[in-house]
Design a protein that fits this description.
Length: 273
């Protein structure tokens, strides 16, 4: 089934979690990004279109300004994001150019709705970039838009933003590149026999409880947010894969039909043989 699902995918949104994009000291993981650029170039050669949604501007800005602890208030994080956005975009431009890829930075607000007149302009811009084989690198413009601020976590919700981008560009697939290599029945760091779930057709209460059971190496909030994103994607009749993103070369195996990560797809959205 995996091979059939992946064979129908043409337009992909790749979301990189900050845990994958950045090292513990908030330095950008250039080795990971270079491998990602290689993978995107390979996918482009196969006729696939790739859009990248990237967080990390706050942490990169903090590193640049020698801020050790990320402030837990909106104005301070907006300042850090304003500093970090250009640095982050420059890394994408430099590393992707090694593989002959052009990138275009796009800063978008979180609050756009289907009724918003600006959304049409955004969609035209993104379509034109893709038509010209330019990889859109999309960052949430938190310097202007604070609507995705999560008071509980004291940070902005980038997972939800990725689902919005997926809808705006009518993606066939949202790839969430995170630390977990899928959804497990139990925490695999505590239970070596924990079974990874290959496919999820519906995000039920029991599935959500599995995400909350993650306690060890993976941030629990990241798993919960990934499942919230999956729930939205399924409602949009789109497909999502949660995959370990520390080595982007895994994506090539995924598109070869290998059972990597966890696939989220409604049964009625499965492609027909």
């Amino acid at each position: 089934m995996r091979e059939l699902v992946m064979s129908t995918v043409k337009r992909i949104v790749i979301y990189l979690s900050s845990q994958v994009l950045l090292k513990e000291d908030h330095h950008i993981d250039s080795r990971m990004m270079e491998r990602l650029a290689l993978v995107v170039s390979k996918l482009s050669e196969q006729g696939k279109e790739v859009v990248i949604v990237t967080p990390g501007a706050v942490q990169v800005g903090a590193r640049q300004l020698n801020v050790i602890d990320i402030p837990d208030n909106i104005p301070a994080q907006q300042v850090l994001a304003a500093v970090g956005q250009g640095i982050l975009s420059g890394h994408y431009q430099r590393l992707f150019s090694y593989h002959g890829l052009n990138v275009g930075q796009v800063l978008l607000p979180h609050h756009l709705t289907d009724q918003d007149s600006d959304l049409k302009n955004v969609q035209v811009t993104l379509e034109t970039l893709l038509l010209n084989q330019i990889v859109p690198i999309i960052q949430q413009n938190i310097s202007l838009d604070t609507s995705s601020w999560n008071p509980a976590s004291q940070e902005f919700d980038h997972h939800h933003f990725a689902t919005l981008v997926s809808r705006w560009v009518q993606a066939d697939l949202l790839l969430v590149m995170s630390q977990p290599d899928g959804l497990y029945m139990a925490d695999p760091h505590l239970d070596p026999q924990a079974h990874k779930i290959d496919t999820v057709h519906k995000v039920t209460h029991s599935v959500k409880e599995m995400a909350k059971s993650i306690q060890a190496t993976w941030p629990q909030a990241e798993m919960v947010q990934s499942l919230q994103a999956a729930e939205i994607i399924l409602k949009q009749h789109q497909t999502m894969v949660l995959i370990n993103g520390t080595d982007p070369l895994n994506l090539l195996s995924l598109f070869q039909g290998k059972d990597i990560g966890t696939l989220f797809i409604k049964k009625k959205d499965l492609p027909q043989h």
